[in-house]
User: Fold these one by one.
Assistant:
Number 1:
Amino acid sequence: MKTTSLWIFAVLFVLLAGANELFPENFKVVKGNGAVTLTCGTKNDGDVIWKFSGGSLDALLNYSVDKDTQNLILSEVETPMLGEYSCWRGGEMISSTNLLEEEEESEEEGYFNCSAKSYDCSFTCDWTRFKETKYTKDTKDTKVRLGLGHDCSEGKKSCNWVTSHQLVNGRFQFEISHSVSPYAEESTMLEVTAEAIIHHSFLRKTKRFYLRDIVQPDSPKIVRYQETDHHLHVTIDPPSSWSTPHSFFRLEHEIEYILRDNSENQTSSSPLIPKKISQLRVRSRDALVHSHWSQWSRWKNVTY
């Protein structure tokens, strides 16, 4: 069985709409009411002052500062303690870290989905924000980034993350380039990881799939219908976004039509259908791997 090695490279394009803050450069995730240690990121050249959300730490409980390392130790993190921590010396901020709480991963499929219109060099992924969190229902505090490959799914710093701006309908959309050969059988799954921050809640989700499993062609085009002795012959063209050559990337089509006599709906996988119909429409899918069906084309009135 012929296979091809994969070299998955960076996410190249992001579809942008509206304004949205970037993913924070430094953040730390805590589980439940666990403990966490925050470092200042500087040599011990003297004492530092830690601030929480730009103010003092006086309102916080369960914290201490290590005199030797100047690390801030939070022994039991509660919800009011989530947010931005910064360390200062001589009126200058040295570093800052956003403290987030890990959100339990939901089994729902609505958050993160990917699809491809063909076997060409890219596919898209959509992230739909939480339906609700215990922090906020407002989408303006939502930040999402997406990465491709093992480094991202394993949370390594070498991951090439891309941050998307939020679309008006609450989704974040990413276009991802890949180097999967369309002419060889896939042997390695694509691995896509999304991370989302909603206010002070953090969620990570990874999906693994073959490209062939997410292919859904655009709707095909009805070129013409011609009368024969006993039937109509329907000619259908693949969508312009479908992979070429079409002789190699074959599509199978399904025709739905409405009979004139009784307004009954019927379907056919043959291009030959009854003459006495009032309307027809078509859809397509990969003929070899039986991918997802495309959306139906618009109904076309039949006149002759």
Note: The longest helix spans residues 150-153.
Number 2:
Amino acid sequence: MLLPCIGQIPQFLLQRSSTTLLRIRPICSSTIKMAAEHYTFGPYKIHQSEVFYSTPLSYAMVNLRPLLPGHVLICPKREVKRFVDLTAEETSDLWLTAQKVGRQLESYHKASSLTLAIQDGPQAGQTVPHVHIHVVPRRGGDFENNDEIYDAMDEKEKELKEKLDLDKERKDRTLGEMAQEADDYRKLFL
């Protein structure tokens, strides 16, 4: 369990579910050291410095190969392959987290819209067997045809699985670059 930063206790967003009361709050720099060293994302280990927001059931992380500025992933903490296998509490928490993160990143990146997407299963383009919501702040003209973002997402997922560099424009970022972005985003939730 994470403890709030001393002197920086954020307002809590309380959401009552059928069986539990959820506290939703950011992870701040001093709490990072108390968190687990890694989060699980399917077969991958995600370093804690890449995670900028966490709840008891979900976490938000920066993307190794973002399609656009602010493209992040929201994941359940429990490793769950398919959306239909989430509990009601996990589903609610995942979407409330996506809503809160999306609102902050849309404002931060001066975007006018959000794309929220789940690829649920291999035939839907999911390559990491762990439920995740793509949250992508959008601006007019960021793609020539608006729906091209879905093709780009499919391509990105395939590249991650195959570890190929098919898209020469989009390079993997370093842990340092992702940690800096996560730290910038983390400040939005204090």
Note: Residues 1-35, 164-168 have pLDDT under 50 and may be disordered.
Number 3:
Amino acid sequence: MAEGGDINDVIASFKKFNLVGLAKGKDPNKMTNQAWGKMVQDCIGKDTTTKQRMDSSVWPYVSDKATKTLDLTNAAKCNEALDRAAKVYKEIKKSKDSEEDIRKQLAAKICSSNPDVKKVAQSSTGGVGRMTDTSGYTGAHKERFDESGKGKGAAGREDKSENTGYTGQYKGSGSYGKK
């Protein structure tokens, strides 16, 4: 099994990668193709050949045909995924190591890494704070926000009028003849 652990450690790492970008209501024990691709990219290799081969030569054989997911509660399927990944990795890298050694290396890489989630960058110019501060707005722009600074949406951008009158575009209902 994996160095410093067993298949349960690999499954725990699979679950960490599966939780990144998992939609609400989806089962965290069902690994998606997207999560598999993220795990391959972060742990095994970022090069295009490795990603494509892992997606085309491993994922279709270990995922459930109906749901297109990998059941992380099924240790046999996770073992099969790791075995197939080791076989494909050996072919790609043309390694002289045995498949068992490569499997151990892959398991160690998977267990030791976390999903690489990018952080939101802070603006270097500092203009974002100035743009979101509504106290500096004048004229029609200040009407677009409420007291807390939250936007009013369409209600803050448009002058609402009733489309009543003789024609559909007549906006001044009841104003005819008044001065």
Note: Residues 81 and 133 are 52 Å apart (CA to CA).
Number 4:
Amino acid sequence: MEAYDTKMEEAVNPMEGSDSKMEETVNPMKASDNISNLKSVRGIVTYLCTDYGWINESIFFNTDMVCGNVPLNIGTSVIALVEENETTHIQKAIKVKTVTNPVDGTEQSDLDRELCIKSVTSVTQDSIYIDKETSFPVHLFSEEFMPCKGDLLLVEYSMKPGTSNMNIHTVSPLRSQNMDEVCITSTDGKTGVVESCIFFTVDSLQKPSDYTPGLYDIVNVVAVDSIQPHCSWRAVSMIPVEMCIDQAL
């Protein structure tokens, strides 16, 4: 996704003073606490094991939190979205992204970038809005993931010096997860819920053209973090398990 300039109402840190619904983020199957304490931190990987590591010797992270599953090494420059436990003051990264070291003569490097979480507040035919003033063109997203209202997005951005312009570099779902052999527990017209926590709407669902989701169907879904009524996930694709079995035979 190419960088995209957008105008902010005020020259503020996007984690503060936004009109977008940023009251909460979510962990798998469970809503989390207020995300206002999340901060963007740049640093280097100082310790690394198979499934976890440390940034700047003080920020813990699990390797499955690394964007794009990019291999890390000790000394790799990263940018991380970090939360701090209010009781223990232990810092943990909920997202880690590798960055490129600055090159001589380059006006703005990857090290100028920050990370924040935004919630989609509205969707039009041409744009995805994360607050009243900030939007992305719909064509920047692929058919595999088209954001809907309530979806939580990880936004990589930089601020142009001396202006209130936000330069958007990448936008992606905060998290996505494959969930196999789960049950549709309720349906209501073109909407429904899987396992009582994964919301879906037929109109925004990637699915076989000859399949209509039905109550108690067992399905495989791909879901993204999303703030929906009584749900913390939204299914973006769904395939009935019976079709998967038939295709395997």
Note: The chain has one helix and 19 strands.
